[in-house]
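QUALITY CONTROL LOG
STEP: pairwise intake check
CHECKER ROLE: data steward
CRITERIA: each record must contain a sequence immediately followed by its structure tokens, with no blank fields

ENTRY 1 OF 2
RESULT FIELD BELOW
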Amino acid sequence: MNKNYDIELSSNESDNDSDSNETFTGADNSSKAKIKYMRFSPDALKYVSIGHKFSAKNPTKYTSKGISHNMCFKMIKSDSRLVKSILYSYGFTQCSRKNDKVNFIWANTHMNGQTLRTFLPWQRINHFPRSVSITKKDMLHQNLSLMRKHFGGCYDFYPESFVIPDDKELLDAHYSDKETFPPLISKPASASRGRGIQIITDLKQVDTIEAHEKSRVVLSEYISNPYLVNGRKFDLRLYVTVISFQPLIVYMFNDGLARFAVDEYDDDDGFTETFKHLTNYSLNKFSENFIKNNDPTQEDIGHKWTVSALLRHLAKEGIDTKLLMVRMEDIVIKTLLSIQAQVSSAIRSTGLGPNVCFELFGFDILIDNDLKPWLLEVNLSPSLACDAPLDSILKTRVLCDTLNLAMVPILLDKNADNVVAGNEENVMENNDNNDAVSSASVSSVAASRSSSPVMFTKRSKAPFRKSNSFEHRKPYNPAARVKIYSNRINLEKFRKGNFVRIFPRKDTFYLYKHMIEELDFRHEKQDMLLYKTMYNEDPDGYEIAGDVDDYHKELMDAKKYKKTSDLSPETVGFLQEALDEAAEYEREKHANGFRIYPKALPRLHPYARRRTSSQVQADELRRQARIEALLIKPLEQELLRVASSSKVLSDVKSKV
């Protein structure tokens, strides 16, 4: 394909566009084709929700654009109800995994290089190649350790860690001469949702882990002086969206989640009580003492708060919350810089267009008693499950704003002729909650077809296009990529919603300039060129006063520099823009005058859940598997009980 769409965007966007979509100038210089991009809003859910008055008055207000342009999506190793609900509410049709010509892909895994080479400029996928280098715990440790060796104290925000079995000798040597063995958090490198986490307190336990674990395990020093709120330990989930790694462009959502341990904290119990020491929501929600917040207007109730509510609480205690958030932004930027070269190399090797990839990360951070934030881990495809009203409100906005930053183009002619693998039609199913396990049978494909199906031409059943399409792509040189992103940033006020752009910024850029230069192995200077384009200032023409490491030491040393007034005037100067924008994190989001979104994910009308026949069949197979699992589990438990009883009886008889 020779035409590279999305190269050049004009900044003529109107915030009052009646159809909630925008028109920009495309990159095809010969035709200056106008390309429209979707704009997503949580409001769309109301118009396809069962029982909502808007769905009766104007059910096609948001779905018409997706239906008329045959917009399609597919899910790969993901079944996120929130993602599907948002896309359904805009008239998108869900296709099977075999479909290769969809507009949008939401995956809970990474694609290999051969697959990535098949992606075309108008498609969008929610992962960058090799971003797994920070979302796998062992790889995060390795990358941050390398950066710490190279940039010293600038990277003093990650607990001392070891990967077992690789670092077993280093661990033994590190703690052999210490009088006491510090507690360590043990986490399987590839696990999530708190699975496999334990606290170990002696080297013998390390030997046991090494002997029994089949995969790598990360051991991190336990932070024994956490900052407590109401006597409880907590951590923060921050939502970060990246639209480019080179040049690096990063947005952080202006709110997040504070997850509290269920029980009050103390460090004198031998670390045997999980609900005191672990803040993982996936674990704590099973405690009988867990308090769920069912009131979306109260952000500081129970064991899950919003970050903004937590910041307001901390501000009342006299804490400089703006500086605290700037320190967290600094952690996010430095973590992403640690893999900038790797991701950029993978993008070049796969020939991906500049707008194809975007990524939503979940950064988990813990604050110690000195108000120093520590990075715990970075999550691939952070959970979008909506277990409470706060989850529904927050995560729906996070997802919609992320999709808006991704800029999904509306291009009918690109997928209308070859939409699905096989000769399929759009179909609908009568079961109104396809994410729930139900004993109701699914309507047959023939009986559930749309009365006005979209017809598709027959095509090969190969799951992806052959990679030779890569050979015909017009290459993107650094200047062209920078022009794309510069124009996207010019338009961000219409797209970013509740996100705050934390990089690049005019002044803080200079704090990271030396890192960027040393990591730019190809000397393309894309970050420098973007800065020059945005601010009409050559970053190479400015010499930072003093040693830049001194400014980073002030950011890292929260014990000595607790407040902005404790920082040097030079450091404050670099951080001023970030400090000013940090007020956005503390702002109350659900006060009177601000829009309140639905308290929970709604049940969608069947007509809104458009799926191809193969996708309906796949959903039916999954539903049947879930039903079977629910039926088999009690039977297995009963068999185990009987077997156990028989063994006990046998043991008694043998003793008699």
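ENTRY 2 OF 2
RESULT FIELD BELOW
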Amino acid sequence: MGLIAVLALSLSVGHSQVEDEILIGKVLAVGDGDTFYLRTHDGRELWIALWGVECPDVGEKVGQKARRYAQKTVLGKEIGFQMKVPREETERSYGRVVHRGSEDLALYLLRHGMAVYLESVAPEAIEYAEAEKLAQEERLGVWKMLMPEDEEEEG
């Protein structure tokens, strides 16, 4: 199934026209694990960011890992971008990034502890909460450092 078809299927009913905008383009640069510079098929160039998640700063080990994964996965490649928050409201556009036909980049980063879920931004993204919970349980990425080992806990 192509990028456009996958993104079209994932759109929720009731969103505004701007939120429904789907951009297809090539990633020209990776800022960190959750920000990218995109050139669309119609020639627009813009900074985009993953909606509902945040990766650690690249000054941190997990942030570097997230950036390397994003570079390996999407840099120089075509992606689909489902707009959630348009650029007019912020310094960049926020949305879902789909690559390899149907894989949600944010979901992968969350599942492997390379990002944290921002429930206040994306409360309807239940799959993001579930992926983050699995990473926490397995103490992956950021959760390896933030959650104490059971034997180290007091009580």
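INTAKE CHECK: passed for both entries
DESCRIPTIVE NOTE, ENTRY 2: Residues 12 and 31 are 28 Å apart (CA to CA).
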